[in-house]
Amino acid sequence: MPLGVLVAVALSFALAALTLKMRGIYLALTTWAFAEISRLLISALYEITRGDFLQTPTLFGLRSLIPYYYLFLGSATATGVFIYWLSRSKAGYFIWSVGQDPLLSSVIGVNVYRWRVVGTVVSGLMAGVAGVLFGHYVGVLAPSILGVSGNGHDNHDDNSRRLRDPKGG
Which of 88, 86, 90 shows the shortest CA–CA distance to 111? Predict the structure, then answer.
């Protein structure tokens, strides 16, 4: 489990370090290309990744939902406490100011690039924790779980459109 979170944090740091100095269409194209290359590598390197359909063991080995309820309740509470603490900290104020007005933040001496990377890594950390918990709850890690398979064009329900539209497809 911690390995999945560490991989998410490392990938979010790498992506942020490479792309957050870009603006506009270059940022959008680079992040889209990173997502597509990652998806293709996961599918192509079957010996290492086991493809894009990875079975994971359940956390409790039980089919009862009560332990998962308390685990998710605890993780949601911990996430809320973390976000509350972060939003009241000096780092949280820097992240917030960079998100509101990067030019003004740079004028008052905030390192905009650094705090954008920190914000991206924090969001990658939370997404990694949520993904690890969800994957072990469902028992499978695959794009088709969320209604998207491959490029998302073969499944035309509302969820597929919502997930596909920001990608431009």
Answer: 90
